[in-house]
Amino acid sequence: MKKINNYWTDGNNNRWDANYHTKKKAEEQSKSLSDCSNCSDCFYCSNCSDCSDCSNCSDCSDCSYCCGCSNCSNCCGCSNCSDCSYCCGCSYCCGCSNFKTNPQRFISSNIGSREDQTYFYWDSNENIIVICGCFKGNLKEFENAVNNTHGTNKYGKQYKKLIKLVEYIINQKI
Questions:
Q1: d(CA 55, CA 131)
Q2: What Å distances lie between residue 27 and 34, 38, 39, 171, CA to CA?
Q3: Separation of CA 138 from chain center
Q4: What is the average pLDDT score of the chain?
Q5: With CB atoms counted within 10 Å of each terminal CB, which end of the chain scores lower, N or C?
Q6: DSSP code of 118?
Q7: What are residue 94's phi and psi, to 5 degrees?
Q8: 120-157: string of b/e by CB count within 10 Å (b at 16+)?
Q9: Phi, psi (deg, nearest 5) at residue 107
Q10: DSSP code string of 134-163
Q11: Contact 7, 16 (CB under 8 A)
């Protein structure tokens, strides 16, 4: 970590404003980034490129496996985005690679041990993608993951009821 033009700058040219970040804090945040370059004041990124596993980013490009971003391109978890892949929690998507058209979706209320939303996407061929925390897979894989992780505890019961609800919704819409 070097100080360049009043910014703490790491080896990938990610930088943190020295007026707001100590060198130690910049080093900590640098370690939290994955494949990021030319980012500024990252932890909640903006105007980044080629990042992965980021969250709450904005105006980034060519990122992947991100979540909760906005106005980005080629990333996921976005709103008002285009040419996305591996989407989760999207709204107003266009050109997402997982679906030829904007998929139908169901988003749960906050449930489970994370007390967070679970996202279900499907198309007219019943291709279903489930996003729940770091899990991404089809409905059967999700059900297996719930059984393995929670069994019959209260969270397992919540997720199993949710799976049945989504199956009912899909059968009614298709």
A1: 15
A2: 13, 15, 14, 50
A3: 16
A4: 74
A5: C
A6: -
A7: -145, 125
A8: bbbbeeeebbbbbeeebeebeebbebbeeebeeeebbe
A9: -120, 125
A10: TEEE-HHHHHHHHHHHHTTSHHHHHHHHHH
A11: yes
